[in-house]
Amino acid sequence: MHRLILTTALVGALATPAVANKVYVSNEKGNSVTVIDSETWEVMTEFDAGNRPRGITISPDGKLLYVAASDDDQVKVFDAETYEELYALPSGPDPELFVLHPSGNPLYIANEDDNLVTVTDTESHRVLAEIPVGVEPEGMGISPDAKWVVNTSETTNMAHFISTGDYKIKHNVLVDQRPRYAQFTDDGSLLFVTSEIGGTVSVMDIAADGTPTMRSKIGFELPGVLPEWLQPVGLKVTKDDKYAFVALGPANRVAVIDVERLEVVKYIIVGQRVWQMAFTPDQKYLITTNGNSNDVTIIDVADQEAIKSVQVGQQPWGVVVAPD
Hints:
CATH superfamily: YVTN repeat-like/Quinoprotein amine dehydrogenase
Mean pLDDT: 94
Oligomer: single chain
Number of helices: 0
Number of domains: 1
Radius of gyration: 18 Å
Strand order of the largest sheet: 1-28-27-26-25
Strand content: over 45%
Shape: globular
CATH architecture: 7 Propeller
Order of helices and strands: EEEEEEEEEEEEEEEEEEEEEEEEEEEEE
Structural class: mainly beta
Helix content: under 10%
């Protein structure tokens, strides 16, 4: 059903892959999820996922796939093996991004049109809380100890630190224009927040009690690329906290940041309008969604090189990889 694009010179690099994990890609305009085999990088199937699927994640045991069907105002839950829709969770209006508690319950959901974060119990299917935040909430990050959820509001230009103990905002931090994504380092000591229109990544030190302090802001500059095209959106940090990979939207690049120095050390060319990203469990590969070229790019993390692209559905948005 889909054409696989392969750079033959790079086949040898994939000759001894790790154990395969399914890669799930939400296609915002295709109203579907594409499933890719991470060993062969071939498309396995594509299935209907509701209207305008964006945010996507998977349960810790790899059995349940959660998809934010934004225009259906619900989170659809699928069997990750059979792709059967099992039920829908209440999510509030226009769910976009969400983050799952490490235990698998609850789910913290950004409701873009209603300026809320909705907390939904994944077992009882009840809404536990609705937390007012800034205008146009999008990004959702959770601290490694699961004590804090961070929401970014696009129009208010803030990162809101929400206690998972009482669902109250404890800290608000002003960042640059249109913050899109929030990601903690694995040790919880730093938080990265991307700002799409501001063109920066804000880096905050996180104290033991969760208090954030702005450390620096990282900008981007690339010869031949207009500054307004350098729009940071998705961001992922390696488990060893050495590198942060930043999707730069219409620049068609992923920036690599040295976390210790907080400096950009490389730019990787990927598909058109790169948006979200996900690592394979062993972090050997990073998969990017490229909305305008309708494909995903596979990046070799150690070499920091793009090695392959795979055609998926129409306007891929989110991506998640099944756990081991």
